[in-house]
Write a structure and sequence with these properties.
With 180 residues, the protein is an alpha+beta fold. It folds into two domains: 7-70, no CATH class; 84-179, Immunoglobulin-like, CATH 2.60.40. The chain has two helices and eight strands, in the order H-H-E-E-E-E-E-E-E-E. The protein has helices at 2-35, 49-70; strands at residues 84-92, 99-108, 111-112, 121-129, 132-141, 149-152, 156-166, 169-179. Strands 1, 2, 3 and 6 form a four-stranded antiparallel β-sheet that branches. Strands 5-4-7-8 form a four-stranded antiparallel β-sheet, with no helix packed on it. A hairpin with a 2-residue loop joins strand 7 and strand 8. The model has no long low-confidence stretch (mean pLDDT 79).
Length: 180
């Protein structure tokens, strides 16, 4: 509030200074013409037109400068495109027959998980074997809480598809595993 008041006072002071300077210029100009015995040229309402145009231009410029200085500056931040590469690992657990540990490692700009715990990934797994399909979800996975899903796979060809949602984008990767 105090800043707005000081800017109004400054604007009024500048306008008053401009008006006083313009009046002094007009009086001096008229005095010179009277001394030289020239008849002053009158324009609009008895005033020379160039003074009126100059004063309107000055007031308009001051108003534009004041308006532009009081408007907030909008800054938009855009992040550079992040390259996300997905790596799906499927390893037998050594426990039950056909039991596999599925892990997914997103690689951001060459660094696994982006080496930052603030990066959160939602992972949607779809495992298809012929006409059978199962879906699993892992939410908010990160560098310190990595992906790990234990699944019993059916004999035959299993298509494992992982879809990762990160930073408003989705990324997908498939891997085919044949189980005896």
């Amino acid at each position: 509030m105090e800043k707005e008041l000081s800017s109004y006072v400054t604007l009024i002071a500048v306008v008053l200074i401009v008006v006083i300077v313009l009046l002094v210029v007009v009086v001096i100009s008229q005095q010179q013409k009277i001394k030289n015995m020239q008849r002053p040229r009158y324009g609009f309402l008895g005033k020379p037109l160039y003074i009126m145009v100059l004063s309107f231009f000055t007031v308009g410029t001051l108003g534009l400068v004041y308006y532009s200085s009081t408007q907030p500056v909008q800054v938009e931040q855009t992040a550079a495109d992040v390259e996300v590469i997905l790596s799906i690992n499927a390893e037998p657990t050594g426990g039950a027959l056909r039991e596999y540990r599925l892990t997914l490692i997103p690689i951001l700009s060459g660094i696994p998980w982006g080496a930052n715990d603030l990066n959160k990934f939602n992972i949607y797994w779809t495992i298809t074997n012929g006409s059978t399909s199962t879906t699993d979800v892992e939410l908010s996975k990160s560098y310190t809480s990595p992906s790990s899903l234990v699944k019993t796979l059916q004999p035959g060809t299993n298509t494992i598809k992982a879809t990762v949602f990160f930073d408003g984008n989705s990324y997908s990767k498939e891997r085919i595993i044949t189980v005896d």
